[in-house]
């Protein structure tokens, strides 16, 4: 096996072939970019290493960045559990502060074009809108097991019900079924794309699941397959879709681009979601920890 170093630190080689090398990133490395040395040859590759940003959370979907770069995370809790804080704000240093209370099983989050945070509850099937002071109002009801939320360019809100329906909520909070998908054993995860399409993941009992795209007419097309447990998603400024896969053996963050094979861009176990910082950078979340990577990536926006 060749000797591999990440920066100045030796790394354990897990697998080596003529065209591929797999290593375990050494523990204790600070967040940042490292040169990888293989067999004493410098510059063989570079590696971006993330580090925990905030702990003591309970995510079941992607975290969300506000327009000013503030990160919002949930403490969702087990079904029916009443927790002291439903949503926290997180500063650049990882310090979290209580923001929202009173949402049972806070599940998925998204910001509308006006910068208001919306949060779904998988327990009561409602969508809550929060102002800057943390005051809540219910803007949609009776959405089943409400998982996944996203906004279209015209302000239309979309919410997934894991029993198999994606709802469209328009003006006056009018709720109509928009598209049907196979029911999920866990949750629906939604992300809006730059062509005003909607992307959905919905893990099932199958050994392999896909990623779906829904156009504005509600037509559903599977755009990728072969994921073991696809979960939260995010879209970058170039329109590429990033999908978390949580299955053992292939866990990590994958990038999907039109006309290209999916590519693993981050290896990490047990992730549930991802989000791009509008100032640059990326966070990924497990159930209890959010990690940050200082990579040159930004989210796309309708603006």
Low-pLDDT residue intervals, each spanning 5 or more residues: none
CATH class of the largest domain: Mainly Beta
Q: Which CATH architecture of the largest domain? A: 7 Propeller
Q: If you consult CATH, what is the topology of the largest domain?
A: Methylamine Dehydrogenase, Chain H
Query: How helical, in percent, are the residues?
Result: under 10%
The outline comes out as globular
What class, by secondary structure content?
mainly beta
Query: What count of domains describes the coordinates?
Result: 2
Number of strands: 29
**Order of helical and strand elements:** EEEEEEEEEEEEEEEEEEEEEEEEEEEEE
N-C termini distance = 50 Å
For the biggest β-sheet, the strand order reads 3-2-1-4-5
Strand content: over 45%
- Overall mean pLDDT stands at 92
How many whole angstroms does the radius of gyration measure?
19 Å
Largest sheet: 5 strands, antiparallel
Total number of helices: 0
Q: CATH superfamily assignment of the largest domain?
A: YVTN repeat-like/Quinoprotein amine dehydrogenase
